[in-house]
């Protein structure tokens, strides 16, 4: 038997463990065998992984791809180019585009644009506002991966529904079987402190962080968990930034609520001191927290398991919008968010190198769990025979420093990770049996990526 592709000479790592001297065989875009290199079939194409580590394709359940409407920041092509270069095989786009993804036709437009230009596989969330509760079944039919509510004001200014509407949305979404995720910050608290600080002339980047205190996040998590306990809804907490919020998630799980949670590499890597060191480029919502909150996030979230998944919150903006030329200038004139697709794997591998989590635990949180949470498993997030041949090959020993934004592939590459040093990097990205990137160079075709169909 001769198959299309065989990858040999790697250590295969899944949450279940690691197999040295192993590899994967692919036929028609699907995995047909995983096992010892010397037992794999012959292939038309053989990729020698040179002793590196092969893991199921990394799934990023939280990116802002900006298309439709905000293509001056990023589009499907550039976001998925960055994903491919960074080792990410599936991405899920956020709905705060222009128009916002709040109707079936807007979702269809977003899918069409992705089909035309994506390098890796993709999906999208739809937003729920006061205006579209009745459309939830139609949006579900149109194929949204899940739903999102923005509880507090953030980029895009999508207004939050009131608490009654949120409960109704949970009931309607529960009927679809899908999950509802939140931007969980209490809007009244952050609006109050934002206005107060602005009136007092507190305009430094760190003031932006303090205007969105941990209590705003913790309260929003606890309120949504209470609503889900009542309605039975499946809920998700996007970008959990603090140990206090992770603790609230843990208590919700103990109470039997179907609540999942993600955090991002930047909350695990930096403390709020980064706002004093790097200024507005590090501005993000929710903000990067103090050292005590970060340690608690590690302990409760990663060590004890309250955090299910890792995602980037890849949020490109132009250097002007980020005030790159005036990093410590008036923070209220700067925008929140920065790119992450090409640093997420290096950050996580650096933590693995430091012994802060095992390679298996990293793979579980960065591939298996996001695929399971959003209903894409085992087609995505596994190396099971008969599923999509998506995998990421990483060199866990590669030491490197991100010197310059030019090394990245997004349209706009502002990130506080410039100047940071890592141990580990993706060296090949394979989507449905096609090599889409090698050694940081994108070699796949724009338009190869396809929507992950979750309804079939
Ligand atoms: O910092 C952020 N940027 N937080 C969000 O909630 C949205 C995101 C964006 O779209 O830029
Ligand atoms: Zn986001």
Percentage of residues in DSSP E strands: 15-25%
CATH top level label of the domain at 57-373: Alpha Beta
Q: Describe the biggest sheet?
A: 9 strands, mixed
Rounded radius of gyration (Å) = 21 Å
End-to-end distance, in Å?
30 Å
Bound molecules: (4S)-2,6-dioxohexahydropyrimidine-4-carboxylic acid, zinc ion
If classified by CATH, what would the architecture of the domain at 57-373 be?
Answer: Alpha-Beta Barrel
Order of helices and strands: EEEEEEHEHEHEHEHHHEHEHHHEHHEEEE
* Helix content percent band: 25-40%
- The strand count comes to 17
Please mark out the parts with pLDDT under 50 across 5 or more consecutive residues, or reply none: none
Q: What oligomeric arrangement do these chains adopt?
A: single chain
Overall pLDDT confidence: 97
CATH topology grouping of the domain at 57-373: TIM Barrel
How many H/I helical runs?
13
**How would you name the CATH homologous superfamily of the domain at 57-373?**
Metal-dependent hydrolases
> Which outline best applies?
globular
Structural class comes to alpha/beta
Active site: 313
Keywords: Hydrolase, Metal-binding, Pyrimidine biosynthesis, Zinc
Binding site for substrate: 64-66, 96, 317
Family: Belongs to the metallo-dependent hydrolases superfamily. Hydantoinase/dihydropyrimidinase family.
Outline of the structure:
The protein is an alpha/beta fold and 456 residues long. It has a domain at 57-373: Metal-dependent hydrolases (TIM Barrel, Alpha-Beta Barrel).
